[in-house]
Amino acid sequence: MGAPLGSLFELLLPLAVCATGTSFLLSFYLYIRSFWAPHHALAPGGNTGNPLYDFFIGRELNPRIGNFDLKYFCELRPGLIGWVVINLGMLMKEVELRDSPSLAMILVNSFQLLYEAVLTTMDIVHDGFGFMLVFGDLAWVPFTYSLQASFLVVHPQELGAAAAAGIVLINGIGYYIFRKSNSQKNMFRRDPKHPSVSNLETIATATGKRLLVSGWWGLVRHPNYLGDLLMALAWTLPCGFSHLLPYFYVVYFTVLLVHREARDERQCRGKYGLAWDAYCQRVPYRIFPYLY
Ligand code: NDP
């Protein structure tokens, strides 16, 4: 449509600074208006009475102006779509500088676009809308998740066909594990008698729910995180090995998922007690088979 997307490259820093400032302003507005919200509109986790914590986590679940849902808007438009638009801007900048987009840039753009198409939007349902999500949506996701694409504008990479094929394969394997393991568990939780999951081995727990011990969830205790991390690696590999910056996402995401796994493990041990210990004995590795 002729939009000068390539100029986003020069505007990245000022835009990131403005997005950070806007995150503070919007979060203050949300915190203050939440005191007029009806009780049923508040998020259970964001109303501890500690102002700093509640400001950070968010008091109101889905703050709206009329019909306009602020959380939904911020997650989808400046957050996810902002990330895609910045990536495309970097691709356009490459076209301006070098006449055509590089293979590395095309891979990074395609992988991340595919990922967004499958991301679940669980925050929309459970969490309040406070500084953490506002900053995440307006500043963190669009400006840090697009680091690989902006890196490629400044540091062009020669990517041969074999290397590209290898990277596409890693992304494909990651995507396959991510999708298959998530849908296996979701199907098992929705309908354990469904033919696709009914022949899997399970163990009983005292709550009446069962745990899968074969199939994807018998490989490691969080196969979905394994798939996610393989994809994160594939987004970074097109940037080569000369610099640490494009590896920021894969390092950050590994720390995030290792921490999330530990938190989920604690919750599951609390919920399922001895049955969870039996599962851990049967499936000793958490995320990486034979490693972790
Ligand atoms: P998970 O989908 O990993 O679900 C964990 C829950 O699954 C447990 O609490 C338990 O709940 C159930 N469960 C665990 N083990 C078993 C088993 N053996 N059999 C049956 N049920 C089991 O939760 P997340 O929300 O952490 O992850 C969802 C997806 O989102 C993942 O693919 C993850 O990679 C991705 N993600 C992406 C992020 C990003 O920023 N890109 C951030 C975080 C997650 P119960 O028993 O109560 O059903």
From TrEMBL:
Organism superkingdom: Eukaryota
Enzymatic reactions: 5alpha-cholest-8,14-dien-3beta-ol + NADPH + H(+) = 5alpha-cholest-8-en-3beta-ol + NADP(+); 4,4-dimethyl-5alpha-cholesta-8,24-dien-3beta-ol + NADP(+) = 4,4-dimethyl-5alpha-cholesta-8,14,24-trien-3beta-ol + NADPH + H(+); 4,4-dimethyl-8,14-cholestadien-3beta-ol + NADPH + H(+) = 4,4-dimethyl-5alpha-cholest-8-en-3beta-ol + NADP(+)
Main location: membrane
Pathway(s) of this molecule: Steroid biosynthesis; cholesterol biosynthesis
Membrane association type: Multi-pass membrane protein
Keywords (A to Z) from UniProt: Cholesterol biosynthesis, Cholesterol metabolism, Endoplasmic reticulum, Lipid biosynthesis, Lipid metabolism, Membrane, Oxidoreductase, Steroid biosynthesis, Steroid metabolism, Sterol biosynthesis, Sterol metabolism, Transmembrane, Transmembrane helix
Residue stretches spanning the membrane: 12-32, 129-147, 159-178, 199-220, 232-258
Pfam family, one: ERG4_ERG24
Coiled-coil regions listed in the entry: none
InterPro entries: ERG24_DHCR-like, Sterol_reductase_CS
Localization (cell): Endomembrane system; Endoplasmic reticulum membrane; Microsome membrane
Molecular-function GO terms, alphabetical: Delta14-sterol reductase activity
GO BP, sorted A to Z: cholesterol biosynthetic process
Listed EC numbers: 1.3.1.70
Similarity field: Belongs to the ERG4/ERG24 family.
Record's function text: Catalyzes the reduction of the C14-unsaturated bond of lanosterol, as part of the metabolic pathway leading to cholesterol biosynthesis.
Protein name: Delta(14)-sterol reductase TM7SF2
